């Protein structure tokens, strides 16, 4: 249907036929975007590209969007680029006839493999002018490279890259290599891409109808795309729906669906029960146990398939065959559903919750149900979809009722999150203490009644507050930070990295900003594990998307290609002349005092780390309390 609509639109929109969409068209826009830092100009260039693609090759829209945000498909497909620099350097050397030493020196000089690729290629004379690169082929090759695994995959990848490099003209090599490295470095944030998409579609539809563009429609379209994307994070499905039914009908035609993990609702941290009571004054709210396991979004599709997705929209179905086996026991007559749950390690002999550390010892690959020793119990706390119907806008009280009506508890395997609806301080305090005794992290306090208590996908909402017992005296919450650099240890620890430079993620600039150095809380076993994990990610120069202080005394011994998120607890936050977190908003960066390692967060990608906005908010809350 989409292809048909697309063809019709192409004919109507342009009045003539076109050859394939060339990669050059996209790269020309990348160059224009790279040349400016002004957000309005960036979105205008991006929207112009989208509009021209809509007119000439509407069936290519999703591919073009993915090339612009440098992804290979929806997150839940799990296909990723981000090839290592040694493989890329080898590919550049082999495809341009340069020596590895030359490529290395150029890299040290330019600090950007994309530029190295382009300069290495520039003097190369081709015998024949190659056929121009097609956008679809570039994207398909990227996907193929990402899917290539196993023995000899390195060579296969290098060969595919060489083939593309051989066909590159002009500045294409620069962007091919940057895309493969996982960093386009043009300052095009996904937020701007969403704005541009709306601009392009609204303009396209207005032009087709011979009308003037209404700026209000652009804003409305943008909001709609953003909201729908949180429910259905798949550009191809959204673009198909817009092409089919128009942008203004998007929220009716494109909704939460089973088989597509939606971005989970998140909670705001609080430091005390009185802070919770202040927030929820004069409202109906509920306290639930905050279980300490792994978030699990459980789907049963209309065709009976079952999926389990992580907090990060990763497909964990094969990691949890035991969990999948439990589903029919609790699902009763429910034909299709999406549940929001926490999977927690469970002691079947003593019938009690085991700590998170036990859960994290479960195998992550090649899991065989018979061999599983750490069993899980699912604690369901929300339902988002039931029998073909979205429940997102229902108040929490009604969702909870539906959850309890449609599903049946199975002791030790599937239970409803323990809850208490009260606004009495003593009762909440007792419930909090009890949650800790029952091996939970504390409480989640949620708005229960009214429109505002609907489920807000992807949002860190003030309608969900977390109260973690351990953190009440600290800064209210732990932080999830990206490891950016390492320092060799001293004495016994000198064979490993003994300390790490950590950063937060700035979602606007799409940069990592340094926030602290930590050496505390690691066992020797953990340091060794960290060394083995991080050593292969060492890079010669920090990536251009890291904002750090370049005074030699403040530099780490090695830089890493950001890959790992760790949870950190700190005493408090302070302004710092060295660190960069939140510097756009505060003039000076924010840093952590007495940061201490808690655990590795394998369930978080680097872009899910604590954001600059969050740390600024925490700093301001702390300042308000002190002030
Ligand atoms: P965030 O998701 O807020 O970035 P995080 O992943 O570090 O932070 P927490 O700060 O521990 O997680 O708090 C939210 C998480 O708590 C949820 O993602 C979910 O996995 C877990 N959780 C446990 N019990 C509940 C509950 N009753 N309601 C909602 N979430 C719960």
From TrEMBL:
One biological process term in Gene Ontology: nucleotide-excision repair
ATP-dependent DNA ligase family profile domain residues: 369-506
GO molecular function: ATP binding; DNA binding; DNA ligase (ATP) activity
Reaction catalysis annotation: ATP + (deoxyribonucleotide)n-3'-hydroxyl + 5'-phospho-(deoxyribonucleotide)m = (deoxyribonucleotide)n+m + AMP + diphosphate
Keyword vocabulary terms for this entry: ATP-binding, Cell cycle, Cell division, DNA damage, DNA recombination, DNA repair, DNA replication, Ligase, Nucleotide-binding, Nucleus
EC assignment: 6.5.1.1
Cellular component GO terms held in the UniProt record: mitochondrion; nucleus
Domain of life from the UniProt record: Eukaryota
Locations listed in the record: Nucleus
Enzyme class: ligase
Coiled-coil boundaries: none
Family the entry assigns: Belongs to the ATP-dependent DNA ligase family.
Protein name in the entry: DNA ligase
Species of the source: Yarrowia lipolytica (strain CLIB 122 / E 150)
Part of the whole protein covered: 112 to 738 of 738
